Sequence to fold (448 residues):
Amino acid sequence: MEYAEIVPRQKSYFAGNTTKTLAHRLETLRLLEGLLRENEGLFLDALEADLGKSADEAFMTEIGIVYEEIQFMKRHLKQWMKAKKVKTAMTHLGSKGWTILEPYGAVLVIAPWNYPFQLALTPLIGAIASGNTVVLKPSELAPKTADALFQVLSQFREEIIAVVLGDAFLTTQLVRQPFDYCFFTGSSRVGKLVMQEAAKQLMPVTLELGGKSPLIVTKDADLKLAAKRVAFGKWINAGQTCIAPDYAFAQEDVYQEFKDELAQAIRELYGEKPLENEKYGRIVNRAHFDRLIGYAADAQKDEETLKIAPFLLEKPDLDSAVMQEEIFGPILPLYPYRNLEEVLDFIKMRPKPLALYLFTKNRDLERKVLFETSSGSVCINDTLMQISTPYLPFGGVGASGMGSYHGYQSFRTFSHQKSVLRQPNWLDFSFRYPQSKWRGKILRLLFK
Ligand code: NAD
Fold:
């Protein structure tokens, strides 16, 4: 089906009300889960081909998370779909009020390349669980995964789930179609373009964007464990993770020790020769490889395999390019700091990040950082783990995005909250009508 035909077809299918029922939502989720499990091998191969992801890493960061999300939706959907009663105001004596979470209709999901399976399917699961139809546009930069998604999801009728393959041009054309909702994951630059297009038809959007997520290590942190957990979060997928720590500040008394522990943790995770380690991923393409080498010419690299070894970049100039752009690769700028105030000022004066990481045992300090800074999420004494629980919403703020999803929050995001009021016929206050001589007095009593 041509992309321009899909939206009217999906809208007319949606108008038939089938996708709104609990039975249909559960059945679609069951079918989806079955198809994904049946084709797990195909996806593992695609992720290996696109990004050099090892099977274990791909299962942990992409496939397992998606299974978990489907299970979570299936377990809770019935409860979430129930109408919610609200209280009645004094002015509404005898009336009943409630809210209904209703699907928007036809939803467009645009996905990036770095977790091309999970970041395409987790929003899709939320949209389906909420009773919508979906058009999915995977990233052209992870072509094998995009093809596998196309092939597997073509088992659904296109009126319910359609996958459209293409590049930036096609994405722009898609955003111009009369969708009821657009869910975009990608860069802030493209997020702005998508929002501009969506604004032309007042299409609501969720933007899951990127940015520079800071990491703070205080002197009372458990340095060895902190280093291991930072190494895990920074170098998984070769640093191409939207919530990876982008740069680090360590308190000056422990700076050297933390740096040494980090170097040791990297060796423990990926060995002396990470470029030869099959558990260590590669950079997605030559353009990104060259961009990253531009930040760190001294990093060990392999132009054939497009791998760049984990690299600690000590104290680069705060005005240098590496500290202006999101790094999105295996390079970690590292700075010592004396006063936490300086670090917090630095963070507060920059665009709001997607994540902030804090390693400390000091609860007062933890409270201070939480109070003073704004970021999509915060993870204390670990990295990335805040994203892998369906109980926490995931999303950005300011430059790192708007809106959030995962678990119940996905259900909220892809549902419109409709307010309903039912008035009684047995009661009709005369004072609200213009001829009532008491109107002014009673209203002034009611709205004090
Ligand atoms: P991208 O913005 O280049 O591409 C995302 C999608 O937009 C792709 O499907 C692509 O085809 C499309 N696109 C690209 N250029 C376009 C244009 N000019 N007009 C319309 N559509 C266009 O992002 P990417 O390189 O795939 O992903 C990396 C970025 O995504 C990083 O900034 C990263 O931080 C961010 N990201 C965010 C999250 C999150 O959950 N917040 C997750 C992963 C990645």
